[in-house]
Amino acid sequence: MNPICNHAASKADEWVPVRPGTDAALMLSMANVLVNELGMYDRDFLKKYSNGPYLVKPDHIFMRREGKPLMWDPSEGKAKPYDDNLQGILP
Q1: Are residues 18 and 51 in the same domain?
Q2: How far is residue 79's CA from residue 62's CA, in Å, rounded to a whole number?
Q3: Is the terminal CB of the chain with fewer CB neighbours within 10 Å at N or C?
């Protein structure tokens, strides 16, 4: 993706011009399709090695109960503290 057809772009099979300053929006929209529509992401990695399963409030702070961050337990359909025995979330 390049708004200018320069030397590198001339070597490509197809030059896709984008408006200058919109390349980030294009890449984020492509990432959105990959994750939300095609489901192409490593679910197990996100569960084990990231904060992906944690619930976040509108003010971008983790939801907490008794000082412990909450995660969604799909087997019971409710939020639980991260250190509870969460079926389907943690191994």
Answers
A1: no
A2: 12
A3: C
For residues 14 and 87, the model is more confident at: 14
- Domain with 74, as residue range(s), is 42-91
Give tens-digit pLDDT for 40-75: 999 888 878 888 888 999 999 999 988 888 988 878
Asked if residues 53 and 46 have their Cβ atoms less than 8 Å apart, the reply is: yes
- The answer to pTM > 0.85 is no
Instruction: Judge whether 78 and 63 are in contact, CB under 8 Å.
Output: no
